[in-house]
User: What shape does this take?
Amino acid sequence: EVQLVQSGAEVKKPGESLKISCKGSGYSFTSYWIGWVRQMPGKGLEWMGIIYPGDSDTRYSPSFQGQVTISADKSISTAYLQWSSLKASDTAMYYCATAKDQWELQYWGQGTLVTVSS
Amino acid sequence: DIQMTQSPSTLSASVGDRVTITCRASQSISSWLAWYQQKPGKAPKLLIYKASSLESGVPSRFSGSGSGTEFTLTISSLQPDDFATYYCQQYNSYPITFGQGTRLEIK
Assistant: This one.
């Protein structure tokens, strides 16, 4: 059974750094792209970027380029999303998901809620 | 960026109704379109990919159609479990983009 298990909820202050994780199991982690999706409170889905763990090829949405870093450690089947300096506007639920054949997102993690507040 | 516009934004319907949600792309995306269902507090669920292919395990009352710039998601006979928010997503080109969502509520 394919599973993506994300790290737990975080409460941070503006300016702090953060790295959240997404651990894959039940499939070949290095063979499928993993994407990250943001959902701000009460809002829709926003595609942030995607990584191919096999070779770490990474693509970002222009809206998120330079704002976050996506990475993966294939030795532990884990993808990451990180911020160097959080803002209040980063408060959101963040989902990871595997891409099926192209970029449709097939299996999803349970989400990580990030709250940034002073 | 390719803009995805869903209509309606909110849809009220009853159990047993046939409903259709439309998604329009700002430029041609061939058939590179997916549909997702999201319930409150849950991750989205893939329903349809490549515009009309039904994801494994998804009930056959869900169907997708269209190509180019206009697409539809149809639920042939609404069930109580179907009341949720639905999103389309284009994956023809980067950046991948979602529609704004259609909230399907009980009439």
About this structure: The mean pLDDT of chain A is 97. Chain A touches chain B through 25 residues (CB under 8 Å). The two ends of chain A are 40 Å apart (CA to CA). The CA atoms of residues 83 and 111 of chain A lie 17 Å apart.
